[in-house]
């Protein structure tokens, strides 16, 4: 079983803003209508998005959170220039989108250990599409504080069970996501799917190795092209060389990555 390759070819599309729904901690949901429609997106694949003007010049990558027909939902955390611009964008405004890109998460298989999803912060985004497409699975979802855990009724409806953690203990267990993950792995190996900040992915990779659990992780890298041309998204690979996150990822087997 390997990370899922794209079944549709990436294409450029016009994306019109249909809805922007803000949540408490600053994260917001952006619903876009694409023309032409993108075809079926694999959970974990991403799109490159930019405005119609030249600022910022380079497009930015975002995981697809949900898809219905030619509507796409993205979950976005404001970080810098472009995401702040998106946090103010109005209904009807247009963006340029290229996608779907990269390799997504694998789907459940009878021969493999049961699936367990692990999300840190905005890393929860791709699991909306995964749970909708492949059905319920346990989801461990953690963040710093309760305001950063968003769409809880959405996750409750899709994940079985939903285990929440916060670093300040304001909701769910006061712990990092690796703590309930470690507990779950005591019952036997699981096929882990994880998305979140790099230190979290490194900790997940260690736990997976200790318990002989296959782990598929969605890597974060800054991207300039998203299509294998600029080589800007390289991360160190094991046993040597580099992986290009936009082409060989973003979802890769944890054992293929060299975490420093
Ligand atoms: C495959 C993939 C999927 C992603 N999915 C989502 C998503 O669903 N929702 C979401 O909110 N974000 C997602 N991101 C991150 C998103 O692409 C960045 O937050 C965005 O590019 C920031 O653009 P900006 O212009 O707002 O910030 P910039 O001004 O470009 O950067 C602001 C700060 O964020 C840092 N930064 C920018 N991009 C990254 C990155 N990729 N990794 C680590 N640090 C970064 C910069 O170093 C800088 O410190 C994803 C990234 C990748 C690679
Ligand atoms: S982003 Fe350009 S090669 Fe990956």
Automatic annotation (TrEMBL):
<dbReference type="InterPro" id="IPR019480">
    <property type="entry name" value="Dihydroorotate_DH_Fe-S-bd"/>
</dbReference>
<dbReference type="GO" id="GO:0051537">
    <property type="term" value="F:2 iron, 2 sulfur cluster binding"/>
</dbReference>
<protein>
    <submittedName>
        <fullName>Dihydroorotate dehydrogenase electron transfer subunit</fullName>
    </submittedName>
</protein>
<keyword id="KW-0274">FAD</keyword>
<dbReference type="Pfam" id="PF10418">
    <property type="entry name" value="DHODB_Fe-S_bind"/>
</dbReference>
<feature type="binding site">
    <location>
        <position position="233"/>
    </location>
    <ligand>
        <name>[2Fe-2S] cluster</name>
    </ligand>
</feature>
<dbReference type="InterPro" id="IPR008333">
    <property type="entry name" value="Cbr1-like_FAD-bd_dom"/>
</dbReference>
<dbReference type="GO" id="GO:0006221">
    <property type="term" value="P:pyrimidine nucleotide biosynthetic process"/>
</dbReference>
<dbReference type="GO" id="GO:0016491">
    <property type="term" value="F:oxidoreductase activity"/>
</dbReference>
<dbReference type="InterPro" id="IPR037117">
    <property type="entry name" value="Dihydroorotate_DH_ele_sf"/>
</dbReference>
<keyword id="KW-0411">Iron-sulfur</keyword>
<feature type="binding site">
    <location>
        <begin position="60"/>
        <end position="63"/>
    </location>
    <ligand>
        <name>FAD</name>
    </ligand>
</feature>
<dbReference type="GO" id="GO:0046872">
    <property type="term" value="F:metal ion binding"/>
</dbReference>
<feature type="binding site">
    <location>
        <position position="225"/>
    </location>
    <ligand>
        <name>[2Fe-2S] cluster</name>
    </ligand>
</feature>
<dbReference type="InterPro" id="IPR017927">
    <property type="entry name" value="FAD-bd_FR_type"/>
</dbReference>
<keyword id="KW-0001">2Fe-2S</keyword>
<dbReference type="InterPro" id="IPR039261">
    <property type="entry name" value="FNR_nucleotide-bd"/>
</dbReference>
<feature type="binding site">
    <location>
        <begin position="75"/>
        <end position="77"/>
    </location>
    <ligand>
        <name>FAD</name>
    </ligand>
</feature>
<feature type="binding site">
    <location>
        <position position="230"/>
    </location>
    <ligand>
        <name>[2Fe-2S] cluster</name>
    </ligand>
</feature>
<feature type="binding site">
    <location>
        <position position="246"/>
    </location>
    <ligand>
        <name>[2Fe-2S] cluster</name>
    </ligand>
</feature>
<keyword id="KW-0479">Metal-binding</keyword>
<keyword id="KW-0813">Transport</keyword>
<keyword id="KW-0249">Electron transport</keyword>
<keyword id="KW-0408">Iron</keyword>
<dbReference type="InterPro" id="IPR050353">
    <property type="entry name" value="PyrK_electron_transfer"/>
</dbReference>
<dbReference type="InterPro" id="IPR012165">
    <property type="entry name" value="Cyt_c3_hydrogenase_gsu"/>
</dbReference>
<dbReference type="InterPro" id="IPR017938">
    <property type="entry name" value="Riboflavin_synthase-like_b-brl"/>
</dbReference>
<comment type="similarity">
    <text>Belongs to the PyrK family.</text>
</comment>
<keyword id="KW-0285">Flavoprotein</keyword>
<dbReference type="GO" id="GO:0050660">
    <property type="term" value="F:flavin adenine dinucleotide binding"/>
</dbReference>
<dbReference type="Pfam" id="PF00970">
    <property type="entry name" value="FAD_binding_6"/>
</dbReference>
């Amino acid at each position: 079983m390997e990370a899922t390759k794209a079944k549709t070819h990436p294409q450029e599309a016009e994306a019109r803003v249909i809805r922007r729904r803000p949540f408490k901690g600053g994260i917001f949901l952006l619903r876009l209508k694409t023309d032409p429609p993108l075809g079926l997106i694999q959970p974990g694949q991403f799109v490159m998005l930019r405005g119609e003007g030249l600022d910022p010049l380079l497009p930015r990558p975002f995981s697809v959170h949900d898809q219905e027909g030619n509507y796409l939902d993205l979950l976005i955390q404001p970080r810098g220039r472009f995401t702040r611009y998106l946090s103010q964008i109005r209904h009807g405004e247009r963006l340029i989108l290229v996608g779907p890109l990269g390799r997504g998460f694998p789907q459940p298989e009878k021969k493999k250990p049961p699936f367990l999803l692990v999300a840190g912060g905005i890393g929860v985004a791709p699991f909306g599409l995964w749970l909708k497409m492949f059905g319920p699975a346990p989801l461990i979802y953690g963040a710093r504080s309760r305001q950063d855990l968003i769409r809880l009724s959405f996750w409750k409806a899709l994940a079985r069970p939903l285990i929440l953690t916060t670093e300040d203990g304001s909701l769910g267990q006061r712990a990092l996501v690796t703590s309930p993950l470690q507990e779950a792995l005591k019952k036997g190996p699981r096929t882990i799917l994880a998305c979140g900040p790099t230190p979290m992915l490194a900790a997940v990779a260690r736990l997976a190795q200790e318990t002989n659990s296959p782990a598929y992780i969605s890597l974060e890298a800054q991207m300039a092209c998203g299509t294998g041309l600029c080589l800007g998204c390289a991360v160190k690979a094991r046993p040597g060389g580099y992986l290009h996150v936009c082409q060989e990822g973003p979802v890769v087997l944890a054992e293929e990555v060299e975490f420093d």
